Backbone:
């Protein structure tokens, strides 16, 4: 090979022909095709395909560092993809309303704004009238059973109250998809239970498609309609398990044979993947 060829700039993937887009089965909301992502030259995702169902909660679970957060961040447009296509009901991200709940609520809320203004922020960005904003705020306050003072600044609230406000903000403009990246991992147990139940209630009322990253297998299964189990990197789908127990799921759910069986199966797949 001559030097000119060696030095020729390489357009990544330019020579790889793109296959025709293949839609997902009925009931699919998010279609991911040929998703490829490298960090520092190391493949994290290569030609990754996935169909995420609509009006369902999909929990994402997998080995440490397999790319759970990166996956939802690529879908939500927070991390650029190297290659691939992600469509929401056939639409692009720009044409889709999304909400995002971060693990680190302390950095997610704007500290200079009162909590109420944080929550209303997406509505104000959309240019909603004061009457519309007030009506939506009332709905959110009722559905989250808010007992704390929303006129306070976020740093005056407890962690659980801040995360409640983050979730209210993420839901304010009725997103089509809600992303949650370990939303409970920085909360105490009591607050985790409270917010988890509120989230489930909101889901039952709205049917918003949710994509939840969780480190806690019991929680992942408890909330899920589908458990997405990922392999070690380069990451592929190990299994997409359906879990169909009726909602609301309650403490009784935890002892149901179907719950225990799904948890066991998820754990076996997880163990198989970490030992691979
Ligand atoms: N901006 C970045 N630059 C370089 N490497 C990154 C970057 N973001 C993520 N990575 C690497 O990509 C891999 C996947 O990271 P990611 O946080 O998505 O995994 P995860 O499954 O959510 O991790 P965890 O189980 O630790 O929460 C990790 O090896 C991580 O170090």
Residues:
């Amino acid at each position: 090979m001559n030097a000119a060829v060696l030095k020729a700039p390489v357009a990544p993937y330019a020579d790889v022909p793109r296959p025709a887009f293949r839609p997902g089965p009925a009931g699919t909301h998010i279609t991911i095709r040929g998703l490829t992502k490298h960090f520092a030259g190391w493949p994290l995702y290569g030609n990754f395909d996935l169909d995420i169902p609509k009006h369902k909660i999909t929990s994402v679970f997998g080995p440490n560092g397999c790319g759970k957060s990166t996956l939802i961040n690529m879908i939500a447009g927070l991390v650029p993809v190297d290659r691939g296509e992600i469509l929401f009901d056939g639409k692009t991200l720009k044409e889709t309303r999304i909400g995002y709940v971060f693990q680190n609520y302390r950095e997610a809320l704007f500290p200079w704004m009162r909590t109420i203004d944080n929550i209303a922020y997406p509505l104000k960005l959309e240019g909603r009238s004061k009457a519309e904003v007030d009506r939506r705020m009332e709905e959110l306050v009722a559905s989250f059973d808010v007992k704390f003072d929303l006129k306070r600044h976020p740093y005056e609230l407890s962690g659980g109250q801040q995360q409640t406000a983050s979730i209210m903000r993420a839901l304010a403009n009725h997103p089509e998809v809600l992303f949650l990246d370990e939303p409970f991992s920085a909360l105490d147990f009591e607050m985790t239970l409270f917010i988890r139940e509120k989230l489930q209630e909101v889901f039952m009322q709205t049917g918003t498609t949710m994509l939840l990253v969780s480190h806690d297998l019991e929680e992942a299964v408890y909330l899920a309609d589908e458990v997405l189990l990922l392999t070690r990197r380069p990451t592929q789908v190990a299994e997409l398990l359906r879990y169909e127990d009726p909602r609301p799921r309650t403490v009784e759910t935890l002892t149901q044979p179907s719950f225990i069986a799904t948890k066991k199966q998820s754990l076996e797949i997880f163990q198989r993947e970490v030992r691979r």
Notes: The mean pLDDT is 93. Residues 39-40, 44, 64-70 surround adenosine-5'-triphosphate (CB under 6 Å). The chain has one domain: 21-275. The CA atoms of residues 114 and 233 lie 41 Å apart.
